[in-house]
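Final report, Chapter 2: Outcomes

The project's central promise was a pipeline that accepts a single protein chain and returns its three-dimensional structure in a standardized token representation, suitable for archiving and comparison. That pipeline is now operational. To close this chapter, we reproduce one record exactly as it appears in the project archive, with the input sequence first and the structure output second.
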Amino acid sequence: MKPIRANPVVVLRGVPVLMVLGGAAADLFGPEPYLGLPFLASAPLLASILLHWRTSVVTAAVVGVVVAGVDLQLRRPLPALLVDLAIVVLVGVIGLWAKWLMDRQSRHLAVTQDIAEAAQRAVLPDPPTRLGSLQIAARYEAAQAEAQVGGDLYAVRATPFGVRAIIGDVRGKGLPAVSTVCQVIGAFRHEAGRAATLSELADRLHNAVTLEADSSKADHSENFVTALLVEIAPDATKASLLSRGHTAPYLLRAGEVAMLEPSDPGLPLGMDLPSADGAARPDIVDWPSDAILLLVTDGITEARDRDGTFYDPAVGLAQIRSSTPRELVDSLARSVTRWTGGQRQDDMAVLALKPAL
């Protein structure tokens, strides 16, 4: 049984109240005068950090009343009372100003995150909900940590060889990552129906990433894309999987979760290392009609909670009961959000495929 742990944020919100009570008691009953004033003066500042705007103002007002009451009770002279109140007002104003700055920064971060997601969706539109003999669902969410456009990508395309899909993760963030995402997605859409095999398709995508690195004069070892390529047979009974350094996919069926580790993974696209062979051969897996194939990026596998513990997709997925790809990707996103407390450090992209009955 998991032990019940107090929410540290809730506990901290009670600290200003304790500081007011403790400061008043120290002033009234302490061995030295003004022993509690530092606690009383700090309470509004701490409240402005931990509490809402109105509550912070109320806290500052309460502290002012308490300070005046304590000084009157101890019969301190009027100049001392005015100085004490001035200190409380000054600290309170500083705290409220800091609160205003933090709220403005939070709003700016939220707007920036929305812009990042909008930009990402502009270069990464959702795939069709049904393509050929497949049901499809995808989901992308930007990281809260930096609110920058990231390098996660996915695409699905019908080809003469069956439905082909890709999910990948470009190293880095910002405009360089967006440029590489556009390059890879464009190359995939152009080459998916031309390359006879997944290995050939991977080679063509590798050349596209390498060309992008050459044009930008980037170091090939620093400009690469992890990718997982998928080819679904026309009858949707088998799936071919080719990994180029990407996170392994999952096959979900009747509450069971199987991680499909590649038997012969290759190097990420665009990574040219001395004496390194990036070639990889696809794995062919049986695909029951009631099973869902789930492709994810490391925004899922490397999501961490407040203690730094990584999210385990196999455990999380085993607790999800979803009959459609859309239900699965939405449930997984909620599960990861609960695990991280809404503070993801990386982008999250998910693509789910299921035979259409």
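Archive annotation: The two ends are 40 Å apart (CA to CA).
This record, like all others produced under the grant, will remain available to the consortium after the project formally closes.
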